[in-house]
Amino acid sequence: MSPEFTLSCPLPLDASGRVQIGHGGGGRLTRDLIERIFAPAFGSRADTDAAVLALGGGQLAMTTDSFVVQPLFFPGGDIGSLAVHGTVNDLAMAGARPLALAAAFILEEGLPLETVARVAASMAEAARRCGVRILTGDTKVVERGRGDGLFITTTGVGALVAPAPLEPSRVEAGDALLVSGDIARHGIAVMASREGLEFESRIESDSAPIHEEVMTLIGEGVELHCLRDCTRGGLATALIEIAGAAQMDFQVDEQQIAVRGDVRAACELLGFDPLYVANEGRFAAIVSAGCAERALEILRRNRPEAAIIGTVLGRGSGRLTAKGPLGAVRVLDLLSGEQLPRIC
Amino acid sequence: MSPEFTLSCPLPLDASGRVQIGHGGGGRLTRDLIERIFAPAFGSRADTDAAVLALGGGQLAMTTDSFVVQPLFFPGGDIGSLAVHGTVNDLAMAGARPLALAAAFILEEGLPLETVARVAASMAEAARRCGVRILTGDTKVVERGRGDGLFITTTGVGALVAPAPLEPSRVEAGDALLVSGDIARHGIAVMASREGLEFESRIESDSAPIHEEVMTLIGEGVELHCLRDCTRGGLATALIEIAGAAQMDFQVDEQQIAVRGDVRAACELLGFDPLYVANEGRFAAIVSAGCAERALEILRRNRPEAAIIGTVLGRGSGRLTAKGPLGAVRVLDLLSGEQLPRIC
Predict the structure, then answer these.
(1) Alpha-carbon torsion B310, B316, B320, B325, what sign?
(2) How far is A276 from chain B (nearest CA, A)?
(3) Residues A86-121, buried b or exposed e (16+ Cβ, 10 A)?
(4) Which domains occur in chain B, in start order?
(5) Is A169 a residue whose pLDDT tops 90?
(6) What is the pTM for the complete model shown?
(7) Apex CA A263: angle with CA A183 and CA A326, to 5°?
(8) Residue B71: is the preceding peptide bond cis (ω within 30°)?
(9) Given CB atoms, is B46 within the 8 Å cutoff of chain A?
(10) Which of A24, A67, A136 shows the shortest C-beta gap to B141?
């Protein structure tokens, strides 16, 4: 520690002064950590998942994510394909066409080498399907009991193709809110797999790349204002973050949001609100009112459950409200920690 | 696991079939893992630390590294500054000017938040000194006992400025081998700090950025053929890897390689060969014979211990030999695992 070091910011409001599981949950504690420690230290923005870098004539988007999901293999995916999809999707959310990935592995002593090979093969297959190359990598090993099998950090670079930045400041009153499919499958699939829960039907993660849909929206001239993938914290957290950054109030109509019957039943059983359950192949799109129907038609080519789910009411405190089936309106706020730890 | 999955390669020659600490040591086991699992799966190269991507008119270099060093703070540095220097240096070794970094954190539940803030501040300061921005990041949290305080994965992108690729295939018979300073300080500093060893003098890590020296070498027209930073596995491993990839035999004169007296004494005491001990601010340069003196003069502006340490003998099996003070020649080979685990 250099002698001139001083904390430039108050520590997060956390009585223990220590990292809690909730700091990784994508909710209020995660935001605290970013806003009070990382963003001030690095002078970087806290409101997007990918950064943009001018390079030569073009613009490059860059994003990074560590994956610590447990179990490593779950219905509909595994840590390897998830790491590829998550990174490709973060690039797409910035309006960038994914070009290349880097993959860094932290292995725990004693992990079967066959597991490493299975995960590597899954990553390679996912990358092939996404049309990106895994260009470079790294491997570190930690002693037994100092890791948890396998962690992967993937970093992606992409070429910006959106005609204007996709960010909260571009959101306008009257914009339409869309979601690209049914929600809450990934979190429930991972949780069921981890806890050994069995439901009547097998719930698979929605883990999938979404960049082709985004490229089509851009290519067909839909006026996109902001995109956000609905990962940790689910659809609600994605919308709350954008609403807060934009200082615009949003309202969604819960009846328009598709949740599969078995997923809804599992959420009820487990006490989860599907609006906050993680997805890994769904995104929220905020588009100009005039483009809403065209955007919907494009999204429905891939998933008929895609829907226009609400509107941007106008300037305000950045509040998200949800209208229920009986017309009652409730306020949706950031969860403090997480409903489901380590789902990505 | 998809049903069509089959291992496309034999597993590493490891009787246990499990990850060992040595798989992260930078030696033969690490090479096995890369050559037999990662490189075939990803179709990527195993012989450089950074990959190059054509983008628009220019060429972009990309590199990634996870840092798992213990302890987090050591004489001369900490995991934060190390993560920045390591990534900036890998870009420089590809002949690229570092532009931007991404940083992903895996935190263990219970870690003091003040530690996170200290590490973030150290990273920010190191990045400022290197002239790069930390553009984007990620935070995950794992339960107590499933991590080890703090892991950081840094990924860097840079603009290629070397007039030709710096890679083993460009090494020619007669080329000069240089090293940019005294060696073996980082490994000994970390080990002493971890084990609570005290020497007469305090040995500090050499952790530092080396891109300015590389940019000067390029800017002043030195004909560089290949560069390699002497991290895990030290100077010997860096040269063995290049010799092997180039299929050229190298010879170094041990008397030309600077090792500080206190570092040499510590190595003798601990039974380490300084040629294999990690550095984090030193690199080996292979330059055309005619440029050797100019390269030396440039390197000595920064560190008077920089030296011309040997030559490329010619085409062969890719063997590195070292001539000792009495004229005897010994063969240097890759270590199986590591001398010093978790030094980066």
Answers:
(1) negative
(2) 18
(3) bbbbbbbbbbbbbbbbbbbbbbbbbbebebbbbbbb
(4) 50-160 (3.30.1330.10), 168-332 (3.90.650.10)
(5) yes
(6) 0.93
(7) 75
(8) yes
(9) no
(10) A24
Answer whether B20 sits within 8 Å of A116, measured CB to CB. no
Q: What is the pLDDT of residues B150-174, one digit of tens each?
A: 999 999 999 999 999 999 999 999 9
Closest CA to B77 of B157, B199, B185, B210: B185
The reply to whether residue B110 touches residue A143, judged by beta carbons under 8 angstroms, is: no
Paired with A251 in beta bridges are A311, A321
CA distance A239 to A249: 10
Beta strand B248-253 with B320-323: parallel, antiparallel or unpaired? parallel
Label residue B187 exposed, middle or buried (CB < 10 Å: 0-12, 13-18, 19+): buried
Angular region, A192: left φ>0, alpha ψ -120 to 50, beta rest: alpha
In whole angstroms, give the CA distance from residue A246 to residue A239.
10
pLDDT tens column, A222-274: 999 999 999 999 999 999 999 999 999 999 999 999 999 999 999 999 899 99
Identify the DSSP state of B344.
-
Residue B155 near residue B62, CB atoms below 8 Å:
yes
Q: In terms of DSSP bridges, do strands B224-229 and A51-55 run parallel, antiparallel, or are they unpaired?
A: unpaired
Write out the two tokens for B235: 């100077």
Task: Look at B18 and A64 and tell me if their CB atoms are within 8 Å.
Answer: no
* Token output for B186: 């980082």
With a cut of 70, list the residues of chain B below it in pLDDT: 1-15, 45-48, 338
In DSSP notation, A12-72 reads PS-TT-B--GGGGTTSHHHHHHIIIIIHHHHT--SS-SSEEEEETTEEEEEEEEEE--SSS
Instruction: Classify each residue of A130-141 as buried b or exposed e, where b means 16 or more C-beta atoms within 10 Å of its C-beta.
Output: bebbbbbbbbbb
Query: Do B309 and B241 form a contact (C-beta atoms < 8 A)?
Result: no
Q: Which parts of A117-188 are beta strand (E)?
A: 133-142, 150-160, 176-179
Is B107 strand, coil or helix? strand
Say if B195 is an interface residue toward chain A (CB within 8 Å). Answer: no
pLDDT at B45: 64
pLDDT for A39 beyond 70: yes
Q: How far is B11 from chain A (nearest CA, A)?
A: 7
Do residue A66 and residue B138 have CB atoms under 8 angstroms apart? yes
In degrees, rounded to 5, the angle at the alpha carbon of residue A342 between the alpha carbons of residues A340 and B2 is 110
Give the C-alpha separation, B87 to B210, whole Å. Answer: 11
Q: Which residues of A touch B49 (CB under 8 A)?
A: 136
CA A133 to chain centre: 21
Determine contact: A42 vs chain B, CB below 8 A.
Answer: yes
Task: Report the residue of A64, A65, A128 to disrupt the B interface, i.e. the one with the largest count of B CBs within 10 Å.
Answer: A64
For the stretch A72-100, pLDDT in tens is 999 999 999 999 999 999 999 999 999 99
For range A177-201, the mean pLDDT: 92
Decide if A67 contacts A344 (C-beta within 8 A).
Answer: yes
Query: Nearest C-alpha of chain A: how many angstroms from B284?
Result: 20
